Amino acid sequence: MSVAFRRDSDEEHLEPKFEIPIPAGPNMVTQRGLALIQAKVAELEAALPLIEDEAHIVATKRDLRYWRARQATAQLAPAADGDIVEFGCSVRFRRNGKEQLVTLVGHDEAEPASGLISFSAPLSQALMRAEVGDFIAFGGQEDAIEILAITATDRS
């Protein structure tokens, strides 16, 4: 029989399942970020025994491996003093005439729509080590960002 008429198994046509990629570099976290990771591990561990669908079990185990790795490698950042822009600080700045407020956090805690941006994001990298009153380059423009305020966030 021609191979054109051979029925392949359904398994051959499934998308491969890969591990969730772990961001490169250190796993810096705020106290809030560490609590979020711990809560996610606890949630997945509690859910796993209750799952009956094999595909869902496989996906949950994959997620659990990711979050356990993130928990094991988490490095709680030292408290910032708010004098300069550092990991964990909130920064109010003006760019293109518009004021914005962002907080520099770990990869797993980042929610850009809520103003929580990863410390490795280009904007975070541009802001790092700046002081109030500084003008910094960003997006190929000199003096694109003016630092208006820096606040150390609570790490307790």
Number of domains: 2
* Individual helix count: 3
Termini separation: 70 Å
Q: CATH superfamily membership of the largest domain, which one?
A: Transcription elongation factor, GreA/GreB, C-terminal domain
Give Rg in angstroms. Answer: 22 Å
Describe this structure in words.
By secondary structure, this protein is α/β, with parallel strands linked by helices. The strands form 2 sheets. Strands 5-4-3-7-6 form a 5-stranded mixed β-sheet. A two-stranded parallel sheet has the order 1-2. It contains 3 helices and 7 strands; from the N terminus they run βααββββαββ. The chain folds into 2 domains: 59 residues; 64 residues, Roll (Chitinase A, domain 3), CATH 3.10.50.30. Strand 6 and strand 7 form a beta hairpin. Helix 1 packs antiparallel against helix 2. The model has no long low-confidence stretch (mean pLDDT 89).
Topology:
Layout: E1 27-29, H1 31-47, H2 54-73, E2 74-76, E3 89-95, E4 98-105, E5 116-118, H3 122-127, E6 135-138, E7 141-152
Parallel strand pairs: 1-2, 4-5
Antiparallel strand pairs: 3-4, 3-7, 6-7
Helix pairs in contact: 1-2
Write a brief caption for the model:
The protein has 156 residues and is of the alpha/beta class.
Search tags:
7 strands; alpha/beta; 156 residues; 26% strand; Chitinase A, domain 3; two-stranded parallel ribbon; 5-stranded mixed beta sheet
